[in-house]
Amino acid sequence: MSTKTSGGERGHPPGGRTRLSVRRSARLVERHLMIHRHTPGVLVAEIFEPLLYLLSIGVGIGRLVGDVPGVADSAAGYSAFVAPALLATAAMNGAMNETTFNLLRKLRVDRVYDSMLTTPMTVWDIALGEVCWAVLRGTLAATGFLAVIAVLGLVQSPWALLVVPCAALVGFAFAAVGLAVTTFLRGWQDFQYIQLAMLPMFLFATTFYPLDVYPRPAQAAVACLPLYQSIQLTREIALGRVGPPLLVAVVYLVLMGLAGLVVARGRLARVLLS
Questions:
Q1: 8-51 residue pLDDT tens
Q2: What percent of the chain has pLDDT above 90?
Q3: SS3 letters for the chain?
Q4: Cα–Cα dist 266/274, whole Å
Q5: Residue-level pLDDT at 131
Q6: Alpha carbon 242 to chain centroid distance?
Q7: pLDDT, tens digit, 9 for 90 and up, residues 145-165
Q8: CB 7 within 8 A of CB 18
């Protein structure tokens, strides 16, 4: 019979299943790949959404905006400024969708983790596996969008290839935080609070205009937003402006992801083992 122990894991002696196994986490990613291999439309939708924003705002409104300071190709102009921000948003949404809505379904409806915990898999393995899968999904969406904007002639520099690992970092930060937040949700109705945070951040985190349009006190508040740091990282690299200041965004996102993963593991253990 499977029972809880003082070590906090089911059916194993205290401390027997507290170690993280990358191999076991990889098995969870493999499971998700097998399930989603027949649903490529989900990935296409995550590429199509930022493309619609790019065509409507970047291209449409961009004709009224004209040249943007710091964009090398004046012919691309505003579209080249907006495209990297939408790429960061695609990575964020791809990762967040997986560790919020989809994870809550697996946690509360399908209850797939109950059976996993009867195997050698630990809560740490599940947390890391879900985050890795979300990072993969977000990175694929961002890479697909990068290919689209490259075809449209909106890639400003060969440095743009580094946007792919940057998208993975963005996905990691938001996936880990999304997983932590999901463990606090009481039900489907609480997703409105996630949207209440995500939508304003998308609109105000310099996705469509530079930071200096804000008053100075507001600039400090916007600069603290995780999507702003993500956009700064992808935009500066896509425009060929690579330098030490980008380390601020890298450190920010790494710390955000690690903190989210630690909180998520503790909360997930409480939810699964209660």
A1: 444 343 333 456 678 888 989 998 888 887 777 777 888 888 88
A2: 44
A3: CCCECCCCCECCCCCCCCCCCHHHHHHHHHHHHHHHCCCHHHHHHHHHHHHHHHHHHHHHHHHHHCCCCCCCCCCCCHHHHHHHHHHHHHHHHHHHHHHHHHHHHHHHHHCHHHHHCCCCCCHHHHHHHHHHHHHHHHHHHHHHHHHHHHHCCCCCCHHHHHHHHHHHHHHHHHHHHHHHHHCCCCCHHHHHHHHHHHHHHHHHCCCCCCHHHCCHHHHHHHHCCHHHHHHHHHHHHHCCCCCCCHHHHHHHHHHHHHHHHHHHHHHHHHHHHC
A4: 12
A5: 94
A6: 22
A7: 999 999 988 887 888 889 999
A8: yes
Look at residues 272, 121, 120 and name the one whose alpha carbon lies nearest to residue 182.
Answer: 272
Give the position of tokens 């690299």.
Answer: 237
The answer to whether residues 146 and 234 touch, using CB atoms and an 8 Å cutoff, is no
Those residues with Cβ within 8 angstroms of residue 24's Cβ, 6 or more apart along the chain or in another chain? 120, 121, 122, 125, 129
End-to-end CA distance of the chain: 17
Give the residue carrying structure tokens 């946690």: 107
Confidence of residue 70 (pLDDT cuts 50, 70, 90): low
Cβ pair 46, 90 in contact under 8 A:
yes
Confidence of residue 68 (pLDDT cuts 50, 70, 90): low
Residues in the chain: 274
**In this structure, how many other beta carbons lie within 10 angstroms of the beta carbon of residue 212?**
10
- Tokens found for residue 155: 């890639």
